[in-house]
Amino acid sequence: MIGSLLLLTLILFIIIEAVSAKDRFYHLIVESIISNAHSPDCQDLVSDFRYLFVVRDALNPEAIEPGMPGPKIEADEGDILHIQVTNMNQVLGTTIHWHGIHQIGTPFMDGTQGISQCAIQPWESQNYTFVAEPPGTHFWHGHAGMDIADGITGPIIIHPKNGYPFEYDDDVVVFFQDFYTQTGTQQQVGLYSFPFVWVGNGNSILVGGKGIAPMCVSSDGNSTPPGCIENCANDPLGHLMTIKVETGKVYFLRFIQSNW
What is the rounded CA–CA span in Å between residue 24 and residue 57? Predict the structure, then answer.
C-alpha cells in the first residue's frame, strides 16, 4: 500500500512538472562579416581584413542586426529549449556549446565538435533540444576550432523554478570578452605549430560587446591613431557599455567571463 502511494505521488509529481514546463524557441543565425560598423573596440577591421562571427536570433523581430555578444537565451528551470543554429558562413563549420548546462539524458546536444557531434557545415542547420537546467547564469559559445575568439558567444539565463531568495528591480548582464586582432583561425595555426606559439593576451577587453583598444586612444583627443576608426577613437566613453541606475532600486548584476 505504501509502495503504491509513493509510486502514485511520483507519477503526479512528474505530471505536474511536465505541465508547468514551457517550450522556448530560438533560431540563431551565425554570419561572418568584415565591417567597421561592427568593430567592437574601434580597430579598423576592414584594413586588417579581420572578420567577425556575429549571431542574431531570427525569431526576435527586434534583432535585425547581429552583434557581440550574441542573443540572450532565457528560460525557467525545467523548460525545454529548442534552439536551431544555422551556419551562414561560406567556408567554416561551427557548433554551439551550452556552457554550464548539464545535458543529463541529452549528451549529443552538448555541441562539442569531434566529441558529441560533427561541425555544422556552411549553409546547414542543426536543432538543439535540451532541458533548461541547472538554474543560474551561464553562456553559450562556438566550439569549433577557435571561433569563440571571433564572436560566437552569448548569455544563458535560467531562472529557478521556486524564484529567487531576494527581490530586485532590474536584471543586467555584464558580459566580458577578450578580443584579439588575430582571427581564431590565425590563432589556431600558431597553437598547432612547432614550436608552439601562444595566443597571448587579448588586444582589448570587451564589456557588453564594447571596448577601446589601447592603440585607439587618441593622445590629443582629436587625431585618429593608425589602424583605428575615425571619430570612434576620439570618443572613447561613447564606445563603452554604460549601466543607468536609479536611487532606491535594486539591480541584479550577472557577470559572465566568456573566454576559456
Answer: 13
Q: What is the pLDDT of residues 211-244, one digit of tens each?
A: 988 888 877 767 788 888 877 756 767 788 999 9
* 57 and 71 Cβ atoms separated by less than 8 Å: yes
Q: In what order do the strands lie in the sheet with 125-131?
A: 52-57, 23-33, 80-87, 125-131
- What is the number of residues in the chain? 260
Residue 23: strand pairing partners: 80
Hey, what's the cell of 81? 529549449
Residue with cell 575615425: 230
Helix ranges, the chain (H): 2-20, 45-48, 184-191
Cell numbers standing for residue 86: 544555422
CA gap 99, 110 in Å, rounded: 9
Q: In 3-state terms, what secondary structure has residue 235?
A: coil
CA-closest candidate to residue 223, choices 237, 213, 234, 210: 234
pLDDT tens for each residue of 160-208: 999 999 999 999 999 999 999 889 889 989 989 999 888 888 889 999 9
Residues 49, 94: Cα–Cα separation, whole Å: 20
Q: How many angstroms separate the CA atoms of 41 and 48, rounded? A: 13
Q: Residue 15 to residues 3, 9, 163, 223: CA-CA distances in angstroms?
A: 18, 10, 20, 66
Instruction: Return the residue matching grid coordinates 555578444.
Output: 69
